[in-house]
Design goal:
Elements: E1 6-15, E2 18-24, H1 33-40, E3 52-57, E4 63-69, E5 75-76, H2 79-91, E6 98-103, E7 106-112, E8 118-123, E9 143-148, E10 151-159, E11 163-168, H3 175-186, E12 196-204, E13 207-214, E14 218-220, H4 224-238, E15 245-251, E16 254-260, E17 267-271, E18 274-283
Parallel strand pairs: 2-3, 4-6, 11-12, 13-15
Antiparallel strand pairs: 1-2, 1-18, 3-4, 4-5, 6-7, 7-8, 8-17, 9-10, 10-11, 12-13, 13-14, 15-16, 16-17
């Protein structure tokens, strides 16, 4: 059935350039969220964004629910979306400064500091092939992924809530390279659910610069789970003594800090998020 014309309130927020229209679930009764994501994330005919976020309050104190949908309508786990949701829930008065966001089968502890810093603890990096998922009987860690654009590409496949292929490089790809390599790797048959691609350059000890191709989106300015995957893979490759490691990750849209004791321990993402504007979205037949 066609979607009836609806005027739906939304808030536009961003975290390191990863931007999303955010909706309240209570305003979306009867609306197909996949269709809403495709319409609202469209940068020419919609609000524009790297996807949409849908939030809901719960009857439990200091607990909210988050869903994220890519611009192609697929649902995913989103590290920057979590900080955006934390910012919004706190600003709306739904939660105190310490709370939990339930997001795609995970309970994510969150903290909002008075200075605006937001910390989320998203879990542990996982290279297990069936969990990534990747069509392999062995872990894909620091080894050849395949040949793309006549280049033998070496890297790792892991999940930090979302599937990532991390590729260490001496020089980050230019615009042409990422526009070709990104989708080729994203849709490689070895990845049954596709993969995001994170190109990583170490610029100093515990300091990385990345360029991002996100599945279902394309190139983006920031990725929290991708930054986490890059940091975890960096620690696994460099194998430092276990300790309180803080990895500064420069995304094209800004910086975040990834903290963990070792590559296989819980990951905390620290950064900021902000509300850009709010409005109403007219959803319905054109």
């Amino acid at each position: 059935m066609p979607t009836p014309n609806r005027s739906i309130p939304f808030w536009k927020l961003q975290a390191i350039g990863n931007d999303f229209p955010l909706f309240h679930a209570e305003d979306l009764a009867g609306i197909n969220l996949r269709d809403l994501a495709i319409a609202a994330a469209d940068r020419k005919f919609g609000i524009g964004g790297d996807g949409i976020l849908v939030m809901d309050k719960t009857e439990t104190q200091d607990r909210v629910v988050l869903r994220m949908f890519n611009p192609d309508g697929t649902e995913d786990f989103c590290g920057n979306g979590l900080r955006i949701a934390a910012r919004h829930a706190f600003d709306q008065g739904w939660v105190s400064s310490s709370f939990v966001i339930a997001h795609l089968h995970r309970d994510v502890p969150c903290e909002v500091d008075p200075n605006g810093a937001i910390r989320t603890t998203i879990g542990v990096a996982d290279y297990t092939p069936q969990n990534v998922p990747v069509d392999s009987v062995h872990f894909l860690f620091d080894q050849e992924i395949g040949a793309f654009e006549d280049k033998r590409v070496r890297g790792s496949a892991l999940t930090t809530g979302s599937t990532h292929t991390v590729i260490p490089v001496q020089d980050l790809p230019d615009d042409r390279e990422i526009s070709v390599l990104g989708p080729e790797i994203e849709y490689a048959p070895i990845f049954p659910d596709r993969t995001s691609v994170i190109f990583v350059k170490e610029i100093a000890p515990n300091e990385l610069r990345i360029r991002i191709w996100e599945r279902g989106v394309g190139e983006t300015l920031g990725c929290g789970t991708g930054s986490s995957a890059a940091a975890a893979d960096y620690l696994r490759r460099t194998n430092p003594v276990e300790g309180n490691h803080r990895i500064l990750v420069h995304n094209p849209g800004g910086d975040i800090v990834i903290s963990m004791r070792n590559w296989d321990t819980p990951i905390t993402i620290e950064g900021v998020a902000e509300t850009v504007y709010s409005g109403s979205f007219q959803l319905g037949e054109s």
